[in-house]
Design a protein that fits this description.
Blueprint: E1 5-10, H1 16-27, E2 31-32, H2 34-44, H3 48-56, H4 62-73, H5 82-98, E3 103-106, H6 110-113, E4 119-125, H7 128-137, H8 146-165, E5 177-180, H9 181-184, H10 186-197
Helix pairs in contact: 1-10, 2-5, 4-8
Length: 205
Amino acid sequence: MKYDYVVIEREYGSGGTEIGKMLAEKTGIPCYGSEILEGVSERLQIPVSDIQKYEETTTNSFLYSLYAIGKMNEGAEHLLSKENEIFLEEQKLIKEYALHGPAVFVGRCAVIALESHKVLKIFVHADDESRKQRAVKEYGIPENMADSTMAKYDKKRRNYYSANTGKKWNDWRNYDIILDSGKLGTEACAQIIQAALIDNPFSGR
């Protein structure tokens, strides 16, 4: 493959996680998303719900994240805030998963842990109506809460990405491929990413 790893950032309700799993099935490589959260929960003995709350309320700056990484390298993690302790544990776990070979990573700013590798960076978005329908039908969100839930999780992901990368979460310049799952559908999105992983997708035709 042309890339070692695929990282997917996504709007809430766009089907980014589903696309990651589809891609994993098509390529025979693992997909890590909720597994990262669950792994950190087990290591730090913190409930997943609490980790999500810390992520939602993160107020750290990019400079503080750089400071945190420096402290981790010095073996001084005990001096860090709980938010940064969680972030750094996520980064450690992503690196450990990556040691097993090519993989798809969904969310959690995986691009940072994998920065020394060849990474295909994807952003998945969709129109509000498509996202709302998925939130209601597939995620079980009450229809009258769908809009606020979408806004809540998009804000969380935007803030988390910005705090830990110093970049804007939905800035197209941070990604190699931007996919509109509302227009393309999740299956087509997975196929497009799969084609991008092949050195010459048109060979043999």
